[in-house]
Each structure stands twice: as structure tokens, then as C-alpha cells.
UniProtKB/TrEMBL annotation:
Localization per record: Membrane
Molecular function via GO: ATP binding; ATP hydrolysis activity; ATPase-coupled transmembrane transporter activity
Family: Belongs to the ABC transporter superfamily. ABCG family. Eye pigment precursor importer (TC 3.A.1.204) subfamily.
Membrane topology field: Multi-pass membrane protein
Cellular compartments per GO CC: membrane
InterPro entries per the UniProt record, alphabetical: ABC_transporter-like_ATP-bd (IPR003439), ABCG_transporters (IPR050352), P-loop_NTPase (IPR027417)
Keywords: Membrane, Transmembrane, Transmembrane helix, Transport
Pfam families reported in the protein's UniProt record: ABC_tran
Protein name: ABC transporter domain-containing protein
Domain ABC transporter: 13-105
Chief location category: membrane
Organism field: Euroglyphus maynei (Mayne's house dust mite)
Length: 194
């Protein structure tokens, strides 16, 4: 879907869980982002590619040296951020909606937090709505979200709202006591899976 008019900026961009399905692993990060830039922009903007790629890499907290690295040699967290960068290569503006499917799956806690901090930073500094699907997020990652939608089996929403409201909703609204050894998100996930 493209925004009407002369713009080539997609209305919605999507980063799948398996980034290897959308990226040629033998290409360097610079080649991947350059080709994405070429596909997402008008020919007359081609001279802006290098600067746009460099600023996007910086925005996603990646070392500029990564540009010369083949994608397959990047860490899992770096690969996720490169896949996100690929979707941000439109020069005129970022897509208004970015869907990111399970960006933390398979990452250690530090790499997962960095990926999510990058998404938070993108949302804070750009007119972009980012929707993320995520399983079993840490409390630190949860604090980065504006709103959560916790879905139970069958797609039933059992919580909708800011992360800070989770304890209140469980205890006061649903009159459900949180076990001492569980965080609110763990309790909601237990409810969702029963």
C-alpha cells in the first residue's frame, strides 16, 4: 500500500521474525541498505543514499563499521536492526506504520533490550506508529511500550493499556491476586495460556 500522490513511501512496513527471508545474507549491510534505498526512492534522490544510510545506521545504534560487514557475519541483534533499517530507507519520510514481528526472539537479554530501545527511539523521534508482537518480555522491555495488548487463546484481548496499569487491573478490576514470585506480565501470560 502506497500513500497517494507522488510519494513512494509505503503506508505500512513489515519486519518479519525471520529476517533471513527478506535479506540476501551474502550482501554487506551497506549493499542491503543501498538497494533498499534505490527501491524506495526516486532516481533524483540517489545522491542522498550514503548520508541517509549512515544516519539510519546511527539512529539504530549500529557501529558505522558494520556497513562493510556481510549480513551473515552480523550478530542476531545487529541483523534485526539492519532489517528494521531496510524498512526505513525511504528518504522523504519513514512509513507511518511499522509492524515488527517478534524482534527479540532468539536474542540474549542485552541484545533484545537494545533492539527494543532502538524501536522506542524511532517512535519518540519520528511520526511513526510501531506495533510489535513479542513473547515473554522482560520488565525492562515492557517499560518501553506506551500500550500493551495481551491476547489469550483465540485472540481474546485480556489486557489493553499502559504497562503501569497491569497490577492495578489484576488486583482491583479483576480481583485477581498476583503470586508473590510473579511479575504482572508473568501473571497475565499464565492467564492467557490457561
Amino acid at each position: 500500500m502506497i500513500i497517494p500522490g507522488n510519494s513512494r513511501v509505503p503506508l505500512v512496513s513489515f519486519v518479519p521474525q525471520s529476517v533471513h527471508e527478506i535479506i540476501f545474507g551474502r550482501f554487506t549491510v551497506e549493499e542491503i541498505l543501498y538497494y533498499a534505498f534505490r527501491f524506495k526512492n526516486l532516481y533524483e534522490n540517489r545522491h542522498k543514499a550514503k548520508a541517509h544510510i549512515e544516519s539510519t545506521v546511527e539512529e539504530l545504534m549500529l557501529d558505522p563499521k558494520i556497513l562493510r560487514t556481510p549480513f551473515v557475519q552480523c550478530s542476531g541483534g545487529q541483523q534485526r536492526r539492519v532489517a528494521i533499517a531496510q524498512e526505513l530507507m525511504a528518504y522523504e519520510s519513514k512509513p507511518p506504520f511499522l509492524f515488527v514481528d517478534e524482534p527479540t526472539t532468539g536474542l540474549d537479554s542485552e541484545a533484545a533490550l537494545i533492539v527494543m530501545e532502538c524501536l522506542r527511539k524511532l517512535a519518540d523521534h519520528n511520526p511513526i506508529t510501531i506495533i510489535v508482537s513479542i513473547h515473554a518480555p522482560s520488565s525492562e522491555i515492557l517499560s518501553l511500550f506506551d500500550n500493551l495488548y495481551i491476547l489469550a487463546k483465540g485472540g481474546v484481548c485480556i489486557f489493553s493499556g499502559p504497562p503501569d496499569d497491569m497490577s492495578f487491573r489484576l488486583e482491583c478490576v479483576q480481583q485477581h491476586q498476583i503470586a508473590n514470585d510473579r511479575s504482572p506480565i508473568e501473571e497475565y501470560l499464565r492467564i492467557a495460556n490457561n
